[in-house]
Design brief:
The complex is a heterodimer. By secondary structure, chain A is of the alpha/beta class. Chain A contains 3 helices and 27 strands. Chain A folds into 2 domains: 104 residues, no CATH class; 291 residues, no CATH class. Chain B is of the alpha+beta class. Chain B folds into 2 domains: 31 residues; 71 residues, N-terminal domain of TfIIb (Single Sheet).
């Protein structure tokens, strides 16, 4: 039997099929190559931006990149970076950008210092030629700098000392007459923030949410000499609120990585946020407030301020803070700043009180406390340098905790504290 | 009686054979070009190895040069000072194939 062939038609159809297969193969290969090149460029940008982050974190990064600088990392093509490191309260913010052709990769982050174990103290009480007394269920774990007069158990408020018989579980070192100094450079930065230049005054914020990226210039909200109450607003990143008088923050305000610098700051009960608060006169915080990491709250009194005014940082009952709490004054005077806390304060971080640290019931410090004096007050009597039902435990501080540049325990190595973008 | 079927002529068959050979030839050439010009497995392997090596260099914090052979690739790790800041160092990682061609390179600035 003879089979019908039509060989030419069949070949044309086969050739068509092969051509379609070949062209699809070309398209797939082209697409794969494009994606591979994209991934390679992204990887390259990623290595370059990571290099930029490392350059900013290096010890010289703080001074060298205060102004934005663009340069080639290795002197070749496609390895350009732009770096900037600027102070943000007690921390720094780093911005690293790497770019090649149309592609840009950026990293924005907060920079913190590692804790310097040589200068770290779970407890530092200055030596005023009198001992430290402990009573009730007091726990002190970690290195303690205490007066030469030592530590003794005391019977206060019908309570004997019930803790570990060593009283301080850790190394005991004689303290000095003064607290270790805060970082001068950072204090100058905070002074600049508090004594800002004149700028356009705002009467009210009309938006209910403001976000300002750290890659943009700082957005200042200046309220001048008008007492301002902020409520029902969400403020996020690279925003500085300034006031020459009192500023009140309602619990309905959400602050994230925002700085407030004013003469006086009042925070309503129930507030929650992540912010840095600096005041010349006072900061009054209501009950049940929670400040998340990294937050910093402090009062600063410079020689140029009215020395007769008492500087006070008052915290209500059941508050918690992860970060730094401090009071500072430039020159020692009779009017000492007071850091006053209510019942059940929990601090995961550091406290630096260059005046009295006044407390009520059961403060818990998971980290470190430096104080010129402890003041415990019940309904009848005030006790100086008594730790009563007081917990200080440096072991409970997260091993990933990073401190700001301000405090004495800041070591030179810096790390990324949080990614902002 | 069986029906008579029309068959192809010898010319038709010859032309068909030529066409099919040409088309196959072109297809093979395209396939060869694609497989050669596109990313090959060795490149990807080199990238993976260098990424792993970079992570190890960052973690170990040591700045000693090293060289080793794995999966037909020679991995070289060299450190050099970074001119901008003495606290920094540059790590250069290269994957070299058996023809002594550099398949992939990574350069990164690290904190000492």
């Amino acid at each position: 039997m003879m089979i019908r062939a039509s060989a030419l038609y069949m070949v044309i159809i086969m050739a068509l099929v092969i051509a379609i297969l070949c062209s699809s193969l070309i398209v797939v290969a082209y697409f794969y190559k494009i994606q591979y090149q994209l991934k390679s460029r992204y990887d390259q940008l990623s290595y370059n931006v990571s290099s930029g982050v490392n350059i900013l974190l290096a010890p010289g990064g703080a001074d060298r990149y205060q102004q934005e600088k663009s340069f080639s990392l290795f002197g070749g093509e496609g390895d350009s970076v732009t770096l900037l490191r600027k102070p943000w309260g007690i921390y720094d913010v780093g911005i690293a950008r790497s770019f090649t052709q149309q592609d840009t990769l950026r990293r924005v982050f907060t920079i913190g210092h590692e804790v310097d174990s040589a200068n770290w103290a779970a407890l530092y009480l200055i030596d005023e030629d009198r001992p430290l007394s402990v009573s009730g269920k007091t726990v002190v774990k970690g290195t303690a700098y205490i007066p030469k007069a030592g530590v003794r158990a005391a019977y206060v408020d019908n309570q004997a000392y019930e803790g570990d018989e060593r009283m301080i579980t850790g190394k005991k070192i004689d303290s000095k007459k003064d607290l270790p100094e805060l970082n001068r450079q950072r204090l100058d930065e905070l002074k600049k923030l508090l004594s800002h230049l004149e700028m356009d005054e705002m009467q009210d914020i009309k938006q209910d949410s403001i976000y300002n990226s750290f890659e943009q210039p700082v957005r200042y909200l200046y309220f001048g000499k008008t007492v301002q109450t902020l409520s029902n607003i969400r403020l996020k990143a690279n925003i500085v609120i300034l006031s020459d008088t009192t500023i009140k923050i309602d619990s309905t305000v959400h602050l994230e990585n925002v700085i407030i610098a004013a003469r006086s700051i009042k925070i309503s009960s129930g507030f929650q946020g992540k912010c840095q608060l600096f005041a010349r006169d006072s900061i009054i915080i209501g009950d049940r407030c929670s400040f998340n990491y990294p937050s910093a709250i402090g009062t600063l009194k410079f020689d140029t301020d009215d020395q007769s005014r008492l500087s006070i940082l008052s915290i209500g009952n059941s508050c918690s803070l992860t970060g730094t709490l401090f009071t500072w004054q430039q020159t020692k005077s009779r009017v000492m700043p007071v850091l006053k806390c209510g019942d059940n304060l929990v601090v995961n971080g550091q406290i630096y009180s260059c005046g009295a640290f006044a407390y009520k019931a059961k403060p818990v410090i998971n980290g470190s406390i430096y104080a010129a004096r402890f003041l415990y007050q019940n309904n009848f009597t005030a006790f100086e340098n008594y730790l009563i039902n007081f917990t200080i435990d440096e072991k409970k501080l997260s091993p990933y905790y990073l401190t700001g540049m301000l405090l004495p325990a800041a070591a030179k190595p810096t790390k990324v504290l949080q990614w902002l973008k | 009686m069986r029906p008579r079927v029309r068959a192809s002529s010898i010319i038709e068959v010859l032309i068909s054979m030529v066409i099919i050979m040409v088309v196959f030839g072109i297809a093979l050439a395209i396939f060869d070009k694609i497989t050669h010009s596109s990313v090959n497995g060795k490149n990807l392997l080199a990238q993976g190895l260098l990424k792993k090596e970079l992570a190890a260099a960052e973690f170990s914090k040591t700045t000693t040069d090293s060289i080793y052979v794995t999966d037909d690739l020679t991995i070289a790790r060299t450190f050099s000072a970074y001119a901008v800041d003495p606290a920094l160092t540059v790590v250069r990682l290269s994957a070299i194939n058996d023809k002594q061609d550099t398949v992939y390179t990574i350069k990164k600035v690290l904190i000492k």
